[in-house]
Every structure is written in C-alpha cells, then in structure tokens.
Amino acid sequence: MFQVGGLTAFTVALLVAVAPASVGVGSVSITGRSHGDMSSLVAEVSLDATGRKLLVRLKSSPPDGDEYTLSLTGSLKTATGRPLSGDVDVRVFLLEGDVDGSGEVTATDIMAVRRAAAEGLGDPWLDVDRSGAVTVGDMRAVRARLGRRVE
Ligand SMILES: [Ca+2]
Ligand SMILES: [Ca+2]
Q1: Which residues contact 141 (CB under 8 A, 6 or more apart)?
Q2: Residues 92-141 pLDDT 10s
Q3: Engineered SS bond to 17: which of 51, 57, 115, 147, CB 3.0-4.6 Å?
C-alpha cells in the first residue's frame, strides 16, 4: 500500500475514501528505529482526485541507513466521519543503494540498476546519485555502497 519514490516523497493508497478536511501534515507519522520520531519532516499531505490516495512530501529525507515505520494517524476520517481502521502501518528501509528495499546493498541491487539503465527506466529510487537519470553512474554509486545494511 505504500510506495516509496526516492527519499522525500511517497504515496499511500487507501482502502476507503477519506474526508479531504481531515487530511493534513498530522495525517502521517514517521518513526525511525534508531532515529525515533521524524514526523516533523512531513511538509505536505494531499489527497488526489479519487480521495483514495495520499501524496506525502517530506521537507528532507530522514537519515539514511535506518528502518522507518510510516503510519496513518487517527486524525484521518472517512467521508462519514469515522476514523480509519485496519492495518495502516508499513515499515520501509531507507538505505542509499538498496534499490530493492531488502535492507542491504548487494549485487542484486547493482543488477536491478543495470537492468533499469538498459531499459531506460527512470524510477526515482533507482537514481542513486540523484543525477536525474538512471545510468551507469548509478551502478557505480550502488557498488560504492556494497555491503551497507540497515542496523
Ligand atoms: Ca538490496
Ligand atoms: Ca543517476
């Protein structure tokens, strides 16, 4: 349900539509396993036209090399005014070079970037060196981080 696009924005697909008036920077919390509450990094939470997808922008990326829990808070309400229920947490790894989100930078990540570069894909999490495109430079950037893992 969560998809991390780079380190500064993500979207949340909701099972039910929420009331636009209940959507705000307090709708989402971010907690790092090592770094604690990083919710103050949330710059903007908006709702798309369907009312079932939240777009979350962060002021800056949380510190690299940690595991973060992204949660929807009780301030979000459905169109009928009820709090959202169900499983609304997800854990993500933030680790530069770990493009497949396994929590560790391995040869698999290099291969994923190589494949993306060959196919001309430009997904933001594959642009490890943030040049704006996925190229051989990103393979080098992943290789330089080989062996790093989320502690
Ligand atoms: Ca990986
Ligand atoms: Ca790049």
Answers
A1: 96, 97, 128, 129
A2: 778 888 888 888 899 999 999 999 999 988 887 888 888 889 999 999 99
A3: 51
- Number of helices (H), then strands (E), belonging to the chain: the values are 2, 8
Q: How far is the CA of 109 from the centre of ligand 2 (A)?
A: 14
Question: Contact 112/99 with Cβ under 8 angstroms?
Answer: yes
Distance 151 CA to ligand 1 centre (A): 14
Phi, psi of 22 (to 5 degrees): -90, 0
How far apart are the CA of 146 and the centre of ligand 1, in A?
A: 9
pTM, two decimals, is: 0.71
Distance 127 CA to ligand 2 centre (A): 4
Ligand 1 centre to CA of 113 (Å) is 11
Q: How far apart are CA 49 and CA 142, in angstroms?
A: 36
Q: What are the chain's domains?
A: 2-94 (2.60.40.1220), 97-151 (1.10.1330)
Which residue bears the tokens 């997808």?
A: 53
CA of 76 to the centre of ligand 1 (A): 33
